[in-house]
Automatic annotation (TrEMBL):
Active site residues according to the UniProt entry: 16 (o-(5'-phospho-dna)-serine intermediate)
Bias (Basic and acidic residues) ranges: 188-200
Alphabetized UniProt keyword annotations: DNA integration, DNA recombination, DNA-binding
Biased composition (Basic residues): 212-225
Family matches, as Pfam families: Resolvase (PF00239)
Region (Disordered): 184-233
Keyword DNA-binding: yes
InterPro entries reported in the protein's UniProt record: Homeodomain-like_sf (IPR009057), Recombinase_CS (IPR006118), Resolv_N (IPR006119), Resolvase-like_N_sf (IPR036162), SSR_resolvase (IPR050639)
GO MF terms, alphabetically ordered: DNA binding; DNA strand exchange activity
Organism: Acetobacter senegalensis
GO biological process terms, semicolon-separated: DNA integration
Annotated protein name in UniProt: Resolvase domain-containing protein
Length: 233
């Protein structure tokens, strides 16, 4: 591509499946004139691609990032837009050999980048909507959301019993590989599991109940003033 002939070219090659090789991509990039090529062998499921991060961090103004195909750089429109924007923010350019319209040094390429931005917004909204719908559906089906608890209900009861027997926080914590603070919260019924159980059953938090009870107690136990007795004349 003549528009990139005068620029310094930096190649990026990636394989996303175990057993694939980078040889063909590297050969193609070298034939195009890329002197420096970053080689990514991580799985395509790995969002934290170390070589890509190094490439973007080292970019200089006027350089061009070159890939053999768009799918070697990103797995979605949202990813593609974010990565290309990171490149252009450093006043560098991007080009895909298989998709010449991606040349960001041309007006057509810049227009396509703007279109990608709009598509990325649509994709992000769709993902957000699907996630919300999936979460709502799971809740309706009685499925529990979030991470599974590290401590089972049976273990919680054991911790409460051991603590009531006078065993130290540290000793109990060591048994279950949890922190002293977690043991303390479980023993006092203030851990997230207990709070969730109370919320599901419609019970008010214990702290609120105690506070209200103490007010009620104070109001009923407040001493009453008695009129002074009068001595008969």
């Amino acid at each position: 591509m003549n528009t990139l002939s005068s620029r310094r070219k930096v190649g990026y090659a990636r394989v996303s499946t175990v057993g694939q090789t980078l040889e063909l991509q590297i050969k193609t990039l070298q034939e195009y004139g890329c002197r420096k090529i970053y080689r990514e062998k991580a799985s395509g499921a790995d969002a934290e691609r170390a070589e890509l991060r190094k490439l973007i961090a080292s970019l200089k103004e006027g350089q061009s990032v070159v890939v053999t195909r768009l799918d070697r750089l990103a797995r979605s429109t949202f990813d593609l837009f974010a990565i290309v924007k990171s490149i252009t923010d450093k006043k560098a350019q991007f080009y895909s050999l298989a998709e010449p319209w991606t040349d960001t040094s041309t007006s057509t390429g810049r227009l396509m980048l703007a279109v990608l931005g709009g598509l990325a917004d649509v994709e992000r909204d769709l993902i957000r909507t699907r996630t919300s719908e999936g979460r709502a559906r799971a809740i309706r089906q009685g499925k529990r959301m979030g991470r599974p608890p590290r401590i089972t209900e049976a273990q919680r009861q054991e911790i409460i019993q051991r603590r009531s027997n006078g065993e130290t926080l540290h000793s109990i914590a060591k048994s279950y590989d949890i922190s002293d603070g977690t043991v303390s919260r479980i023993a006092s019924g203030k851990d997230s599991h207990a709070s969730r159980k109370k919320a599901e059953s419609g019970q008010a938090p214990s702290a609120v109940v105690v506070k209200k009870a103490s007010r009620s107690t104070r109001s009923h136990t407040r001493p009453k003033a008695h009129p002074a007795s009068q001595e008969p004349a």
